[in-house]
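Need residues for this backbone.
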C-alpha cells in the first residue's frame, strides 16, 4: 500500500503543473479511450442550401482521409535504499516522488509539443504530408492543393498576410472553411515581439499614430516546449480543439512495493495515451530562421 503522503505529493505535483503551466489541455480535445487504436475520418463539407421546389436536394458527403493512432505506454520508476530512507533527516528523499509527478506532466507536455516541433518535417498526417505543408491535397477531384506553411519572420506585416491566407482555407470539396484565426503560438524568444504586435493600440514598429489592426484580435500562447526559437504559428483555437486529439487509454497511476532481498523501496508510475492531428485546416506555420 502506498503511503498517503507519498501519493498526495505525487499527484498534487502532477496536477499543479497541468493546472497552471500545461498547454496540452488548452490545445487538445482531451478524451478517454477504451480501445488499443483510435481512428478518425475527415469528410467534405455540405453544399449550399437551394430554393425549395417541392423536391429536397440531397448532398452526398465525400470521404476524406483516415487517421489511425495507437496508444503508447509510458513508465518511470524510482528506488531508494532502506538506510537512505531511514536516515533522511531533512525529508529530501521523501520529496522525490513529488518530482516524479512533475516529470509525468513534463513528459505529456513534450508529447503534445512534438506535433508543433515536427510540424514542418515530422510524422506524416492523414494526407501523408507534414502538418504544415505547401501542398496539402484533397480526396475530391478538381480541388487544388493548398499551403499552410511559410518561412516569414514574425512581424505585423506577416501576421496580416498569414491571417489572410488562413481566411482563404478550403474544405476537401473546395468550400471555404470559415476559419477565424485568433491565436499566435510562439516560443519564449518571440514572446515580446508577439505581445507588441497584438497588444499595442497604436500601430507597432512605426511612429505613425494609426490604430493597430491586430489589437484585440489574437490571444498569445507562449510555449517553452517549442524547440525552434524563431518558428511561430497562427491558429483558429476553435478548430484546433476539433483537430488536435488526445486520448488517455490509462490515466497516470502510481504503484509501490518493497524488494525483500535488498530492502529497497520502489515506486513506479504508468500512463498510456496517444495524441495526433486529424486535419491541418486550423493552423498556419511559419518556419522562420530569424
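Answer:
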Amino acid at each position: 500500500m502506498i503511503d498517503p503522503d507519498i501519493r498526495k505529493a505525487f499527484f498534487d505535483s502532477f496536477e499543479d503543473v497541468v493546472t497552471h503551466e500545461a498547454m496540452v489541455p488548452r490545445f487538445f480535445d482531451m478524451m478517454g479511450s477504451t480501445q488499443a487504436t483510435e481512428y478518425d475520418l475527415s469528410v467534405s463539407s455540405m453544399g449550399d442550401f437551394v430554393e425549395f421546389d417541392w423536391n429536397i436536394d440531397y448532398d452526398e458527403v465525400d470521404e476524406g482521409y483516415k487517421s489511425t493512432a495507437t496508444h503508447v505506454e509510458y513508465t518511470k520508476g524510482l528506488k531508494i535504499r532502506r538506510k537512505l530512507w531511514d536516515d533522511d533527516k531533512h525529508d529530501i528523499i521523501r520529496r522525490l516522488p513529488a518530482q516524479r509527478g512533475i516529470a509525468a506532466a513534463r513528459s505529456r507536455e513534450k508529447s503534445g509539443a512534438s506535433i508543433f516541433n515536427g510540424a514542418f518535417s515530422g510524422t506524416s498526417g492523414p494526407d501523408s504530408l507534414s502538418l504544415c505543408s505547401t501542398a496539402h491535397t484533397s480526396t475530391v477531384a478538381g480541388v487544388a492543393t493548398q499551403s499552410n506553411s511559410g518561412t516569414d519572420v514574425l512581424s505585423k506585416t506577416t501576421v496580416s498576410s498569414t491571417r489572410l491566407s488562413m481566411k482563404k482555407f478550403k474544405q476537401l470539396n473546395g468550400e471555404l472553411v470559415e476559419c477565424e484565426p485568433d491565436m499566435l503560438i510562439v516560443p519564449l524568444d518571440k514572446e515580446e515581439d508577439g505581445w507588441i504586435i497584438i497588444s499595442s493600440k497604436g500601430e507597432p514598429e512605426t511612429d505613425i499614430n494609426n490604430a493597430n489592426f491586430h489589437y484585440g484580435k489574437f490571444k498569445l500562447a507562449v510555449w517553452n516546449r517549442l524547440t525552434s526559437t524563431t518558428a511561430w504559428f497562427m491558429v483558429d483555437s476553435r478548430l484546433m480543439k476539433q483537430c488536435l486529439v488526445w486520448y488517455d487509454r490509462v490515466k497516470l497511476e502510481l504503484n509501490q512495493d518493497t524488494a525483500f532481498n535488498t530492502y529497497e523501496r520502489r515506486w513506479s508510475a504508468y500512463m498510456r495515451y496517444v495524441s495526433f492531428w486529424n486535419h491541418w485546416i486550423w493552423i498556419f506555420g511559419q518556419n522562420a530562421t530569424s
